[in-house]
Amino acid sequence: MRKSAGKTFDLTPLLILFFALTVLLRLIPLLMPEIRLWGMNHLLFLPDIWVMLFTLVWIAAVAMSFGKWGKTIGVTLADRFNTLFYEKTRRLILRAAVTVILTLLIIVFASPMHFLGDGYDLLKTLGSEMRSIIKPSEMGASYVILGLQSILGGVSKENALTAFQIVSVTSGAISVWLFFLLAGVVTEHPIKRVLIFTSAVGSGALLLFFGYVETYPLLWPTTLGYLYFGLRFIKTGHGPAWPLPFLLAGMLIHVQSTVLLPSYFYMILSRERGLAIYRKHARLIWSGVITVALVVLTLILYKYYTDLFVKDAFLPLITGKPIDPGYAIISAVHFLDICNELVLISPLILPFGLMALFSLRQYAKNNQAVFLAIAAAGYLLFLLVVDPKLAMPRDWDLFAMSGFTLTLTCLTLISEHQLDRIGRFVGPFVIFLVTAPIPFLITNLGTQSSIQYAEYIMNTDVPRSMSTLVVLHDYYEQIEDHADFDRLTQLYRTRYTNKINIDRAFRAAKGSDLQGAKLLLSMIEPDEYNVNYHKLIGYLAIKEGRADSAIKSIDRALQLKPYIYDLHKTRALAFLQKNIYDSALVSLRRAYTLKADDIDLIQAMSSVYFNCKEYDSMGVYAFKCYAMDTSNYHAGYLLSEYYYIRQQPDSMHYYVNIYRANCSADPYHEDRLHAFDSLLKELPQ
User: Fold this and answer.
1) Which of 331, 375, 424, 588 has minimal CB crowding within 10 Å?
2) Using an 8 Å Cβ cutoff, are 561 and 567 in contact?
3) Which helix (H) or strand (E) holds 466?
């Protein structure tokens, strides 16, 4: 009987070619350092001796795959790994030993710098009392950090850093343990097990666990736990409820975990009772799925076109945003960034993808692979359409799970027949996987190389690198490196003229130079995704008495960043121009929750409460204002009025005398004193 083409075709030559291409990708940046290969160019930032060492090791690994003798080594390695960690009676102790060793290495080499992501901004935010500026998309993870700080002794930048490090390292330790479990539940084949485990630990994602200052490390234990228990249920039919707590925890930590929901429903329907229900009501179930999908899509599109925050979260289809018009879903640079991301997280994605491609005929028979493919598809869609706000080199952490789930899908899909033929590649693959992420780790765990990498990002992704430039600029100021500080100051002024002109226009408007502000505005490129642009338009509208226009602009700015207290103050000012006190109070109260020590804000709240005849509230804020500045004439005046309203002559006398002595700066000082004298005569003595 004739064998199928899929069983007779020998992948060995193609695997050698794809493996060689994988190594070549790591070496190309050495010849073309300016090329946009941020996911694989880390040899550029290492000493020459390290470059030579890694190059020799990788070339040797490729050379090993040519020899048939390597099959014996590979099979022996896989069998030994399988015996130690899955068959020996002390396998749990051995797994724990590996986990402890890796965790200790992580602690010893913890990251001293945080240039790669939002690190320093997060430390500033979660290390202060500014609770209201926590991103809604990752609120759960932020409150974990805040809770740890309370245990550590209170909110501070130092405690925030310690909390982040605890979360990062603990997430890493749990993840390593779950890597063992995942390899065990997917297969009993030694080769597949060793490849799954080494692919998991031989990934750029490992950086997340080196004291990384971000909330994303928490996603790994929850997602890995969900995948493990989901795969276990598909394999054994036991424990359908176990994946759910991990899924819900992941969704609380970050909204991106919602992409796992379709895989959960597939899991439920893939076994026994769920499968019986599906077979009986397949048409009804698919009708429901399509209906829900259409409703969700409609809601997303509605929010996309009505809410700037949602619109800003996604990349445009063809033409990018004003900050970077060439960066869109359908663009070469975005495609290249996706390739960088996948190679960073999955160093052997090319050969693994090739093997999976030639095992596709097994897809329909492998429920575990289908489950993982649905999960990977959700993450890949997330990677495709969501805007990397800090540019891909910095947002690699947000999208890291897309590369991992894709790798796990490919390895799960590889047929037993293919595994029997790739014994010679096991040793070379393991060598490459163990060493491939090390340059990335060294680059970002060393101060000087981390600075060089940040400078590289600034120069290869200029439109999106302003935050990196600012962080590095502040770092140079902190270490008193005046030459580099001045260099980045000049670079900032040269590159970000729109930002400079917006700041200058604000200063002109606040200085009552409306003509100058308008002239600068004419030089600014309109940008609907720029908060400060909308804020400037709104502020100028207030200055010109166009309150409705101001409210419209400020509302657009607040859609983008609802946690900027100054925007709420400006919005309140626009409502006050229209004498709409209730709406002004709403904005003032929101601003107060964001910044409770702004005396001008507190003064405004007490005055508006007075105009609204809410005298108790007026008194509360007038007292706060007076406590901050006893010479504040608004506080002195309002407290005098407050005690007149309360019919308390002694207290009114006290504050009138304070107002008389300390508040002469009030332009209505004399008139108000005469009025107070008359009012005091009306009170019972």
Assistant:
1) 331
2) yes
3) helix 466-478
